[in-house]
Fold these 2 entries.
Entry 1:
Amino acid sequence: MFRSFVTAGVMFALSACAVGPDFKRPDAPATSRYTALADPTQRIVYGETPPNDWWTVFQSDELNRLMQQAKEGNFTLAAARSSLAQAEEMLAARSGARLPKVNLTGGTGRQQMGAQALGDFHLPTFTYYSIGADVRYTLDYTGGVARSIEQQQALTEYYQRELDAAWLSLTGNVAVQYFTIVFTQAQIQALEELLAEDRTNLDLVTRAQQAGIVTKVDELSARSQLAQDATLLPPLRQQLDTARHALAVLMGKAPADWADSQTKFAAAGDLRLPDQLPVSLPSELVRRRPDILSAEAQLHAATAAVGVATANLYPQITLSGNVGMQSTSTGRLFDASSLAWGVISGITAPLFDGGTLRAERRAALQAVQVSAANYRQTVLESFGQVANLLQAARHDEELLVAQTEAVETAGSSVDLARRSYSAGNVGVLTVLDAERQRLQARLGLLDAQSKRFVNTAQLLLAVGGSNLSGG
């Protein structure tokens, strides 16, 4: 249904004017949901849009400061700003085509006329002076100039939306790296606590083995467990360093120059998810997301280009004139007798161009179809992204519940194994295996929490997030 809405809108625009179509925004889709499945238990508020500074829903002063630093220092964002400024200047330049062109002229020279020009009449060598103005104006009766300005306006809108998209991407990446740092630090801390326990266990087993209470196998098992758990630490540290370096680049700093020690990252347990998730309706999403609005601007520009190509098929009418003063002496240059003027009108009509102009118009019509298809695809992909993230929120909750239960169960298993070991009912391998399961459960819980924060941030971005134009 949505495809038919867009196609009908485009075809109506293409038939609206003989010398060029008037752009009509594609109709918003009629669907009111993103998925056919149930929503997550976390409260979804449909019909509301996230705040423009969407990250503030996490109530983190650290994250707020990082966003401000990224806004001021990121070079991708700076490039997008300059691209928009360039497009605005191009629009100003294109808009000047509506007005006549006026040029100041002036000159002086010395000339000798020969017989070829004057015949038997002899004119002595003379010096001349002139000053005046030339005026030239192309009559835009076909609207070609207006369509070219409209096209540039649409391209300027495109660059505005690209700037919004760059800002949206930047804020999303900052949030992802921030949450990655926080939860990776928590995983490292959990692993370091376990390694401390492993060392304590190894010390106890070693002394027990020396006392003849346990076998050498038990000591080797404890030592092996410590070595195996220690192998998990370097990848986590690398993950942490990678996230820090990525965050530095987003801030517009080299990793070596950005002292993230100045940022006191929160503990994982201090972060808070928003109680409610505002989700724009599909009909609102197509008027809010920068990538959709960018595709719409491209469709608008392509539609205006058809008008430009159509106007090129018609004759071009040019009006020009000049007025000035001409004299053979500077003293009489501004006398009334030195006044000279002229008015000229001209017409240029295409008669034969090998089919170039009509082929260009057909190409412009095809470009509209390309832009319309790209627009439809962008909308559908955005709906798919929101649907995926809504279900991710649901499954993240399920995973979090399961991991929380796994941590509690693993903790109880460790306590029971230690008591049984102290009583001599089980060997040290049972205790080590229980501790390994508890570590896996703790790391799994932290990973589930990290995914939930990241996916919540991604959902807020997918439903419109924020943009620098404030819309």
Note: Residues 4-18 have pLDDT under 50 and may be disordered.
Entry 2:
Amino acid sequence: MQTQQRPKNAATAPLGETSRPVVLGARTLNRALLARQLLLQRADMPVADVLEHLVGMQAQAPNPPYFGLWTRLRGFRQDDLSRLLLDRRAVRIALMRSTIHLVTARDSLILRPLMQSVYERGLSGSYGRRLTRLNLEAVAAAGRILVEEQPRTLGELGKLLREQWPDRDPAALANAVRALVPLVQVPPRGIWGDGGQAAHTSAEAWLGQSLATAPSLEETILRYLTAFGPATVKDIQVWSGLTRLRETIDRLRPRLSVYKSEDGSELFDVPGAPLPGPDTPAPPRFLGEFDNMLLSYADRTRILSDEYRPLVCTENGIVRATILVDGFVRGIWRIVRQRRTVTLVIEPFEPLTREDCEALAEEGRGLLDFAAADADVRNIQFVSPELRSQP
């Protein structure tokens, strides 16, 4: 895996040498995040290594992980990921925050049991009343048999389970199985250029392996910090969906570097992880929908300002595709197709300099080459109340 050297102007907090940790500002935290997310410069790494370095990629929709990998990797092609899914070396499975993530097969077997309490809490909150006095172990066992017979959508699964429990809500029954059985979404779901509903089978049946029996929560937290740190305990809890992690962090404390944020919160990190200076240049980048960078902190201001958050994170749970300018979210983007013409529409939230527009347009042309190689005409359009010119 590619390593990155700590710049000479990076902030440091040697373990055990001071009772007053170094204070890290928002720009320093931003540059640390960009470096660890492979966004200061594209990396030359195998896709599977990137998925494990990032501890997975959120993947409610099929295509955003492809955009996320394109913006992080040099020379990435859609088939580089599609082949992993088809060969069962990567899977789509509900993990952190009980949301669909794209992870390696190995990580699915490690992370799924660690997140079990997240699913059970979510099941109780959403369907608890509809599952009262129901033998959930029996429901899970019946559901496992059904999905291992053949992959099924949750709708199909609920209808079949209702044949055994006719007085119960089929959605509640299906979601009980989702919470208690590790379900993976099978291809063609998640394959670029293909489609289909999300059909599920068990991870054990799909991968031919069992879940890890003693996965390490401490190791998973260290991996999170490697990819997202420095971070607070609340940040780790937001990323994972787990609660009461303070005790675990306290056990890890002797192995961690400790900083302070500008508001006085404790920030934890793995020693030696990249921590570039705040003035490190950051090229423009296009992030796909639901990028974990925007969802993995209690305080997101290291990447997304509170002012712009409602413009990115909608009330119905959508997290829009975003542009990064100087390392921070400064707008959203989308691709519009009309027959053989494709247009990349960029909507900045604030006026951008001509240089920023030209750099975004150059990066955008690469994005269209990746996403719309079959189009005869490719356009880039800037749209905002302040800026409506096309460079």
Note: Residues 1-18, 387-391 have pLDDT under 50 and may be disordered.
